[in-house]
Structures are given as C-alpha cells and as structure tokens.
Amino acid sequence: MADSSGPSIMEKELPSVLISGIGGTSGVLESHVEFLKKHFNLITMKEFQKSKELHEKIKSVFVFERLPVIDQELLESLPNLKVIGNSGVGVNHLNLKLIGSFGVKVTNTPHAVSDSTADIGMALMLASARRLVEGCYLATSPDTTHFAVNWLGVEVSRATLGIIGMGNIGYKVAKRAKAFDMKILYHNRNQRKEEEEQEVGATYCKNIDDLLRQSDFVMLVVNLTSETHNLIGKRELELMKPTATLINICRGAVVDQDALVEALQNKIIKAVALDVTYPEPLPRDHLLLQMKNVIITPHIGTATDQALHMMTEEAVENILAVLNDLPIPSEVISK
Ligand SMILES: O=CC(=O)O
C-alpha cells in the first residue's frame, strides 16, 4: 500500500514566486500568505538575496503596494521569470517597456479594485459637497455658536457629474451616481456600447472640454500614462465652472498640482477632493493641506479587507494562467 503521508511522485512542485516580504509596511499581508502558499512556493526578497540558487527557480514576482521594485538588476537576475503579477490596477510604477524587453508579461487586477475605488469616489464627492470634514471639526470644536446656515453645502442630486475615464471603476461610479439622480457625462478613449450607456444613463462627450464646461463635479478615473500626465492643467481648470468640484481617485500626476493650487486660490473652481496626490503623502506645509475647500485622503481607494482579498485572488489567477499557458484574464499590454 502506498504511503500517503509523504509527497507523491505525481505531486507537482509549486511554482516559485518572489514577494517583497511578509507583513509590516513593505510586505504581503500576513492574512493572505496562507492563500498564496496554496498556489506558490513563496520566496521573500531577503531569502532571494541570500541564495543565488533561488534565482533560477523564480517564475513570477507578486507585486503588492508597488513592491518589490522591478528594475533592470532584478530582471537580469531572474532568468526564468515569466510574469509580474501586480496586485492593483495602476501599473505606472512598472517600466512596461523594460519588463517587456525581457519577454516577461505583466498582469493587473482591474476587477477586484472597482467597487472599493468607486465607493471612495462617491465618498469624496459627497464629503466635499456636504462639507463633511469641516462639519466634523465644528462638531468637536469648543465653539458652539456655529449654525449650519453659515456653511451650506450643495446637493449632488440632479447635479451633473463628468467622469473622465470610463473603465471598470468609472462605470461603477456612474452606476452609483445614477442612484443619486445625477446627470452623467463621460469622456473615454472609446465610447461605451449603447446599452451600457443606457444602463447608467451616461452621455458620451468625445471632447473633454465639453464635459469640463458642463459638469458640477468632475471625477478623474484614468490610468496614468504619458498621455494622461497633467491631463488637467490651467487651461482645463479654467474651462470648469467656478462652482465646480474636482475629484481625483486615479493618480496624482494626472493633475498639474501647481495649477490646481492657483485655481483654488483664484476661485477658478470651488473645491477639490483627492485620494491621490504627488508626492504621497504631501509635505506637511503644502498649500493644498491648508485650504478649507480641499479634502485629501491617503490613497485609500482599495483599502478594504474585501478589495485586498479579491486583488490577491485576481493576481494569483493571472499568474497561474501565464504559467500554465492559459488565456490570461488581465494582461497589461504596453502601447
Ligand atoms: O491605486 C490602486 C490601484 O492601482 O489599484
């Protein structure tokens, strides 16, 4: 009778995957390690640096919170690397050209992040419209003489929301905004299918300027690329209504931050709500941190238990697909 306690000859070795570390501020979440270990032989950066023998074994790198850094040196030291599995949708921290030149694929997790990031977009829009942060300060201030009539907010219901970038997240924002009876405009490289537009009641603006001119709230949900870097600058801010609010939930560098400060100082737009800035975090003396009509959160679009869990699952699915020569659910194609 075969001994079932030891490893069977038929059992396949799990593929070796490099991770930055486990736990802390620069490692994979401890709560995800068990799941990852079911699929991979995990190798931490520390182990990798100690043993040259491990280099040849590594087939994939699991990138979490932009770590480990994928540079030329690392790529050269991994002769059998097949795929970088990024946990998260944004891949602006990865040099796609360089990685591609090593014949290595890149994958991301556009589905796992969409609900939590859309929620943050709505939360920021509502918080700014109803001056929630100011309200919290007032509620806890020793001054009890404040009256709500002195700091009125605005309603998002029936207001016009312009969504720039109608991918998975933008579309989820539109779904939510529909439930708030908002009028929805969107700009995207490609127009969505008619039935998709109808489902959320969104109108396509081929010209971004038209969207900027008409919107009460403008929400940025694009990938950061060379084309979207500084997409919103002085000219675009000047096209917006003086009563409009800008919300950014994608990447800080999509907005020219100096132009944004100037626009707020000169009342070119009314308010701003940012989950992303550059750098992150902003220096403590940055002007944006001193303005009442600015809300800033520390890049928490995907900071929920559920999103992080789903991101890990989606990343694992992608990595396994590449390693097993199966159709890849979410491959990032460098343009
Ligand atoms: O910022 C979050 C992401 O890229 O998923």
From TrEMBL:
Domain of life according to the entry: Eukaryota
Domain D-isomer specific 2-hydroxyacid dehydrogenase NAD-binding: residue ranges: 122-301
Key word Oxidoreductase present: yes
UniProt domain D-isomer specific 2-hydroxyacid dehydrogenase catalytic: residue ranges: 29-332
Record-level Gene Ontology MF annotations: glyoxylate reductase (NADPH) activity; hydroxypyruvate reductase [NAD(P)H] activity; NAD binding
GO cellular component terms, A-Z: cytosol
Keyword Thylakoid: no
PANTHER family: 2-HYDROXYACID DEHYDROGENASE-RELATED, 2-KETOGLUCONATE REDUCTASE
Family in the record: Belongs to the D-isomer specific 2-hydroxyacid dehydrogenase family.
Protein name per UniProt: Glyoxylate reductase/hydroxypyruvate reductase
Protein species of origin: Pantherophis guttatus (Corn snake)
